[in-house]
Design goal:
- By secondary structure, the chain is α+β, with helices and mostly antiparallel strands.
- The chain is built from twelve helices and twelve strands.
- A five-stranded antiparallel beta sheet has the order 2-1-5-4-3. The chain has a five-stranded mixed beta sheet with strand order 7-9-10-12-11. A two-stranded antiparallel sheet has the order 6-8.
- α1 packs antiparallel against α2.
Length: about 450
C-alpha cells in the first residue's frame, strides 16, 4: 500500500518537474509559447492532484487515530474505493479497528468478571482514591453496615468515628478489630487494607469482615475445654472423699468404745464432709451441662408458635406480677430450620430473665417480636423495660459462671448462646442502663 502511495507521489513529482521543464523550454525557445502554457496547466493540475492525494490520506489517517484515541471502534472503512492504495489503506484500518474492538471486548469481559467476583464475596470491600473519594463499594459491605453508599472516607467518620480511626491509621499488612453496633447487632470487624499503585494513581482498598461468630465460637470452645478439665479433676478428687466420708461415718457407728460425745462430734464432722462433698459434686455436675449440649435435630419450625408456647407457660407468672406483654409478629408465616426443643429452652431462659428484670419496674412490660430483615435473616427478640445492663457487662453476661444475680449459677445465657451457635446463628444483647434490655436471636 505505502509502496503504491510512494509511487504515486514520485509520479506526481516527476509530472511537475516535466511540466516545469516544458514551461522553461517554451519560454526560451521561439515558436513554442504554447508548450509553456500547456506546461503551466499541467504543473497546476499535478500540484492540485498531489495536494488532494496527500490531504485525503492525512484526513483518513487523522480520522482513524481520533477514533482510536476516543475508543470509538464502531467506524468501518469501505474497501470499494477505486483507488487501489486507498482500498488497501482502508482494509488495514478495518483490521486494526477489529483488533482494538476485540481487545476492548476482552477487557470489558474481564471487568465484568472481576466485578461479579467483588459483588459475590462475603467480605465487605471499599476502595478510595488518593483524595479519599469512593471508587468501589460492594454489596457485602452494604449488607454488613446497612449503608447503601459512602461518598468518601470522611463520611465514614460521621457513620462511626472508631471505624474511621482504625481505617485511617491502618498500615498495609496489619489487622485491627473494631466493635460497633449496627441495626441493634454487635459487630466485631476485622479491618485490613492494601495499597494499589496503578498508572492513574494510588488506591486504598479496605476489607471488613464480621468475625463475631468466629470469636464467640472460639470463646465457647475454650470455656468448654476448661470446664471439661476442671470438672474431670474435681470429680476425681471429690468422689473418693465423699466415699471415704460415708464409710467413716458407718464405721464410727459400729464402735461402742468411743466416748459418746466424741463419737457424736466425729460423726457430725464426717457427715459435714460428706454433705459438702456431695454438694460440690452436684455443683460440678451442673456446670458439666455446658459440655453436654446435644446436637440439634433440625426440622421446619414456626418461631411464632414457639414464642406463643413459651408465653403460655409463663402466663401465670406474668399475670401474678401484672406484666404487660406486647407481641409483634408479621402477618405472613415465617419458617426456619431449627431444633424446637433446644430453641424453646433458649426462649424460656430469656423470658425468665426478662420477668425477673421487670420486677422493680413501675409499669412492667415485656415485648416479644419476630422480624425478618431484608437479608432474609429471622430475628427473635425479647425486650423488657427493666433497669438495663451496664455497657461493661453486656459481653460478660455470656461468660460461663458470671452472674449478676444473688442466686444465679451463671450458665443460663452461656448455654443459650451455645445452643444458638449450634443453629448457625448469634445471640446478642442491646441495652442502655435505665431503658431496659433486648436480647436478639438471629438465625
Amino acid at each position: 500500500m505505502f509502496r503504491r502511495f510512494k509511487t504515486k507521489i514520485l509520479l506526481h513529482i516527476l509530472l511537475i518537474v516535466l511540466a516545469i521543464g516544458a514551461v522553461v523550454y517554451g519560454i526560451y525557445t521561439p515558436g513554442y509559447g504554447g508548450m509553456a502554457v500547456v506546461g503551466v496547466a499541467a504543473a497546476i493540475a499535478a500540484v492540485v492532484s498531489l495536494f488532494y492525494l496527500v490531504e485525503k490520506t492525512n484526513a483518513e489517517i487523522t480520522s482513524f487515530l481520533l477514533n482510536i484515541k476516543y475508543d470509538d471502534y464502531t467506524a468501518t472503512y469501505s474497501t470499494m474505493d477505486p483507488d487501489q492504495s486507498f482500498k488497501q489503506l482502508y482494509g488495514a484500518f478495518n483490521v486494526i479497528t477489529d483488533k482494538f474492538r476485540n481487545i476492548r471486548q476482552e477487557k470489558e469481559a474481564q471487568f465484568q468478571y472481576l466485578q461479579a467476583i467483588v459483588e459475590h464475596v462475603d467480605t465487605g470491600l471499599i476502595c478510595f482514591d488518593e483524595k479519599g473519594r469512593t471508587l468501589l463499594m460492594n454489596r457485602a459491605l452494604q449488607r454488613l453496615l446497612h449503608k447503601s453508599y459512602f461518598p468518601d472516607l470522611a463520611s465514614i467518620e460521621r457513620f462511626n468515628p472508631g471505624l474511621f480511626a482504625a481505617m485511617e491509621n491502618l498500615l498495609p499488612g496489619e489487622r485491627q478489630l473494631v466493635k460497633l453496633v449496627v441495626n441493634s447487632q454487635m459487630l466485631q470487624l476485622a479491618v485490613r487494607t492494601t495499597i494499589l499503585k496503578l498508572k492513574n494513581g494510588e488506591y486504598h482498598l479496605y476489607s471488613l469482615q464480621n468475625i463475631s461468630a468466629e470469636l464467640e465460637e472460639q470463646e465457647v470452645l475454650s470455656w468448654q475445654k476448661l470446664i471439661r478439665i476442671l470438672t474431670h479433676e474435681i470429680m476425681n478428687s471429690v468422689t473418693p472423699v465423699a466415699s471415704l466420708a460415708a464409710t467413716a461415718s458407718d464405721m464410727v457407728g459400729k464402735f461402742s468404745t468411743f466416748d459418746v460425745e466424741a463419737a457424736d462430734d466425729i460423726r457430725t464432722a464426717v457427715r459435714a464432709i460428706q454433705k459438702r462433698s456431695e454438694g460440690l459434686l452436684h455443683f460440678t455436675e451442673t456446670y458439666r451441662q455446658l459440655t453436654r449440649i446435644p446436637q440439634p435435630k433440625f426440622q421446619e419450625v414456626q418461631p411464632a408458635a414457639l414464642l406463643d408456647g413459651v408465653l403460655t407457660l409463663f402466663k401465670p407468672a406474668l399475670a401474678e406480677k401484672n406484666i404487660r406483654v406486647e407481641r409483634h409478629f408479621p402477618s405472613y408465616p415465617v419458617l426456619i430450620q431449627a431444633d424446637p426443643d433446644l430453641l424453646e429452652q433458649v426462649l424460656i431462659n430469656l423470658l425468665k430473665n426478662a420477668v425477673e428484670a421487670v420486677g422493680l419496674a413501675g409499669r412492667p412490660r415485656i415485648s416479644v417480636s419476630l422480624i425478618k430483615d431484608p437479608e432474609g435473616a429471622v430475628i427473635l427478640q425479647i425486650a423488657d423495660n427493666g433497669p438495663g445492663i451496664p455497657a461493661d457487662l453486656q459481653e460478660q453476661i455470656f461468660i460461663p459462671f458470671f452472674t449478676t444475680k444473688n442466686q444465679g449459677t451463671g450458665i443460663g445465657l452461656s448455654l443459650c448462646r451455645q445452643i444458638v451457635q449450634l443453629h448457625k446463628g448469634s445471640l446478642s444483647v442491646v441495652s442502655k442502663p435505665g431503658e431496659g434490655a433486648a436480647f436478639l436471636i438471629r438465625l
